[in-house]
Amino acid sequence: MSSIACFHCGRPTGDGLPICTKCTEILVRMLQSVPGLVADMTITQARLDRMSRGRVGGKSADTPLPISIDKSGNVPIRRPFDLLENEITTWSRDFESRISPAGSLLAAIERPGLLQMTLNCKTGRRHDQSTLSTQPTRLFEEFAVWLACHPHDLRMHPAIDEMFDSLSDVIAIVNKAIDQLPELRYKGVCQYVEYDQGRERRCNADLYAEKGEEWVQCPRCRASYAVAKLDRDILAQMREMNYTAVELQSLLRELGKRVPKSTLYRWINERKLTPRGWMRDGRIIQRWIHRNDPAVYRLGDVLDLATRTERVRS
Ligand SMILES: [Zn+2]
Ligand SMILES: [Zn+2]
Fold it and tell me: What SS3 string covers 278-297?
């Protein structure tokens, strides 16, 4: 048995190949992350128009565009997207020409299974899968997932070390570009009702807005909503929901209510807040069974107390 060390981690690979199985798993996960990264880079034409307002004239087709924003201005740049597309396409073709039978990539693309697998991988940091069903899948996303399906063959690739390193570099560039995009905040689901063959069907697509944005458009049905109204609706729903003291602390912070941890626990100890139930195995139950089960409190009760306290103070 030859004692070749993995080029990435230095552990013996055990079989003379230049990469160990652990590092191959890292490569596979990188490849599987490609559809999610594309989703994160993909924004709608409406957002693009807004971000480059005053710079770009005219209106183009209302399709989602892959885009990222540069640091200083709002000039959209395609570079990280193009780099990623180029990287994946080049390595897929290379892999096919050296390792797998000619035509196997094209054959895989034509099978519906690969598209489904690609859609399953479309969970980004900024979006979840449910928002993305309306976005087109690009061929190179499927290429990446196809490559990820061949871990054993990938290890055989004579330039696997080069593939690993250059893909890591490109993914780092992409992640940096995604980090520079404005933050998205969840704003609930689209309430638009359509009639499909006489039956009511609610759109239910997830709505996200950028910080400071006044309007948000549904990515699926294009219905528009005032963000302030959505915030009010979400808050109204949340008021009726029950949370543990730990969850309440971060919620209150997000809602801009300054309630120190000590105050919250004092309210609980002084029974100003009464439990609405207890958490047990991830569910809220009405009876206190075990002393380790945390109590839950209605957010509305906490907010009312906070408002009253603020009023007394001022
Ligand atoms: Zn390794
Ligand atoms: Zn909608």
Answer: EEECCEEECCCCCCCCCEEE
Phi, psi of 288, deg, nearest 5: -90, 110
Q: Which of 85-99, 131-145, 249-263 has the highest mean pLDDT?
A: 85-99
Work out the pLDDT band at 65, boundaries 50, 70, 90: very low
Q: Which letter, b or e, does each residue of 72-87 get, where b requires 16 or more Cβ atoms within 10 Å of its Cβ?
A: eeeebeeebbebbbeb
| C-alpha 76 – ligand 2 centre gap (Å) | 26
* Residue-range domain boundaries for the chain: 21-180, 184-193+202-227, 240-313
Residue 63, CB-side half-sphere exposure with 13 Å CA sphere: 6
**Ligand nearest, relative to CA of residue 6:** 1
Q: How far is the CA of 237 from the centre of ligand 2 (A)?
A: 19
Highest mean pLDDT among 70-74, 232-236, 254-258: 232-236
Ligand lying closest to the C-alpha of residue 131 = 2
Per-residue pLDDT tens for 214-234?
A: 888 887 788 899 988 988 888
Closest ligand (CA of 206)? 2
Helix-strand-coil split of the chain, %, nearest 5: 50, 15, 35
Residue with tokens 């390193």: 165
- Residue spans of alpha helices (H) in 42-184: 45-51, 79-98, 104-110, 112-120, 139-148, 151-156, 160-180
Distance from residue 40's CA to the centre of ligand 1 (Å) = 29
Measured from the alpha carbon of residue 130, the closest ligand is 2
Q: What is the pLDDT of residues 89-103, one digit of tens each?
A: 999 999 999 888 888
Q: Which amino acid does the sequence have at 253?
A: R
CA–centroid distance, 11 to ligand 1, in Å, is 6
Ligand 2 midpoint to CA 218 (Å): 5
- Point out the least confidently predicted range of 8-12, 198-202, 263-267, 309-313: 309-313
Q: Helix crossing, 21-32 with 139-148: angle to 10°?
A: 160
